[in-house]
């Protein structure tokens, strides 16, 4: 019936079979893939236990590109900045930093093992640092991996979470990117002297760069708004403690009443608005906060409006995901491959259970946004069950799927796995006047 | 699948690294071709292969049926490629479609475009059936749906292909 089409398909297939196979490069890729997988297993454990902070959501979705004339001019006035534009133009706060000359060009290099590491520029405040760098070599460094990265102020390590992308680089012998540090506590620096250590590994060989740099800009202090206001939303008590505005981000600290009968999950539209209705929303591409669902106190990060001087400011949220505390998790017996308990709302369906793996299916929770549904579980003895891999796919389709693999060694049945996100919402909306 | 391959697959599922390497060696050609069919260039296809090795290593213990190992790997590859293309599209939406360096004759280009116009699931189905000669029965078992459903979906996909090609008007039908 479809002979014509089938014949064309067959022809395509035959062509495909004629392409040359780069055997050696594929063999290398197998080794590299295995190495990466092993280090991922290791790294994940390390970061979770070491920092005991949870980045609430990380995402890298980009939907539109807009460039304001002010931003374009500011970029043009900083030598070399155009190479980094794509790293900043999706965060209003970062754009304003560039426009207000708070980005500081550094241009300090170190050469080691035939590689050159250059700190091109830095943005730093009490909450973190964005380090723009270039790493280049006369040979390909596509297979390089990043090992230990640290930032020191007067030889004291500034502890926080470290984030970097692995963007598709234009040249195989060069990497141009930024590394983001988010400090767990706001830091008071003892001087303007900093040093970054950057350890990379290639072909089983480590190279450590140690690059000192001095900040000449005056470090900007945060503006603190003490709010201390308790609001009630759908019967749940939420108190907004403090809102601190820094150049890189706005940090909102929130505390939840232990008597609440709902577990508060994600705030989908937490934001700050000024008198003209201009909005600063959550950090879209990076660490969006500290403190997991089990924490009574959490800190959320919003894009910064530090360089604006609005007359009035309002802190707002409407769409708050929540589940009743007694059904805010999955209870699974992996031995019997049985789902024992789940939320009664039926919005997320468990479709498969294997010995240390399960799969869920759900209609997309939020447009252009994908949530990590789980971060870890608890076994029957109350011990942590690690989730080394969670992959989500199908974004943009009718359904999304998450495949969750638990560390088999930790499983003692039944295992309780709390949700970090769930499409069930509190009724109501909250507006608090900041100024 | 012969007995030896089946044994490699089973041992790899149990977590033996040497068997996992053998398994990837065994399927590297078919995985590379799959990547190439979607991504159309060597660089991206090799990168995809490395990523699939990475993903497979982390998830191989979840495979239930060692005899379907090859299809399991191909599906990871197709998912990766489709995600990758989607991401890429977001960035280059205003530019022209990338040049296709591999297909030169027009009929095949048309077929390429026609396949690209299908939904994700349909693309995968067509690829498994016509490029990998995967049996309907195997597709049905892997997708956990009846064989009849696979057939009717396949039928629908072929129909979409025909419609696309007819609308383009470049192919005549009997």
TrEMBL record, chain A:
Signal peptide: none annotated. InterPro entries: DUF4179 (IPR025436), DUF5643 (IPR040680). Keywords: Membrane, Transmembrane, Transmembrane helix. The chain crosses the membrane at residues 48-67. Residues 223-333 form the DUF5643 domain. Residues 43-136 form the DUF4179 domain. This is DUF4179 domain-containing protein. It comes from Psychrobacillus mangrovi. The lineage of its organism: Bacteria, Bacillati, Bacillota, Bacilli, Bacillales.
